UniProtKB/TrEMBL annotation:
NCBIfam families in the record: tsf
Region (Involved in Mg(2+) ion dislocation from EF-Tu): 82-85
PANTHER family assigned: ELONGATION FACTOR TS, ELONGATION FACTOR TS, MITOCHONDRIAL
GO CC annotation terms, alphabetical: cytoplasm
Protein name, UniProt field: Elongation factor Ts
Annotated family: Belongs to the EF-Ts family.
PROSITE patterns registered for this protein in UniProt: EF_TS_1 (PS01126), EF_TS_2 (PS01127)
Domain Translation elongation factor EFTs/EF1B dimerisation per the UniProt entry, residue ranges: 73-287
Amino acid sequence: MASFTAKDVAALREKTGCGMMDCKKALTQSNGDMEAAIDFLREKGLAAATKKAGRIAAEGMAYAFVADCGNVAVAIEVNAETDFVAKNAEFKAFVETCAQTVAKQNPADVEALLACKAEGSEQTVDALLKEKILTIGENIKVRRFERFEGAVTAYIHAAGRIGVIVKFDTTPEIAATEGFKEYAKNVAMQVAAANPSYVNEAAVPAEVVEHEKKILTEQVINDGKPAAIAEKIVMGRIGKFFKEICLTDQAYVKDPDISVQKYTENVAKELGGSIAISAFARFEKGEGLEKRSDNFADEVASMIK
């Protein structure tokens, strides 16, 4: 029996851009030899995009939409090497296909999505991805996605720089009103602009709060404040901390005199029911990824040589 691990399969996939099952088969055929497995995939024509798969992909686009059914929202980030590709119609169509596939088939993660049959196609998403890498000529990676069901909204900022989806707890009757739809869009725009980390104070992990308290306490003591009043000062600053990281505590961008929570309560009262923000996802393209730092003149020169 071939000797290799799940990590070997993952490593081969990273090197070649091929599907997990193809990588497992290649390692089985090559008795766990990584280089032989790469050769096997290349010989089968499965790793034609091997070199591209190792290149940095930190551009691309974030996309968000609400499916035709009206109660499923998807946010997805698909990366490419350059911002030019984000404007490519073929690339945009691929991103939208991925989002539609997530909406319809509800895969558990990116690996499961790649194994899905792409909506509107006879190919898997993984096969379609490899095809786009070859035809577009850049490394392309499906990085992440989120999917919500229920009363939802979606917002795209700056032609795909940021994609946001938000889920609400309310009744179908209220969710169907124009007033709610306008409110929901405003909340999604708030998420895009203010970049909160959590929905509300209850969602902030205890360890995050304790860590912040420790830092603030040290700051207060270093400022020379007496220990007797340090705790009160820290609690006041923790309130400011929540206003920065919690969506419902933030000042509403269109009316800074009220919080997002107060804005929510006002709209709920106008519509004759209750509304609560239950979840959100905010994807910014290339967030946290290493960026390319190519010198364009050097690149042209190397092409001429």
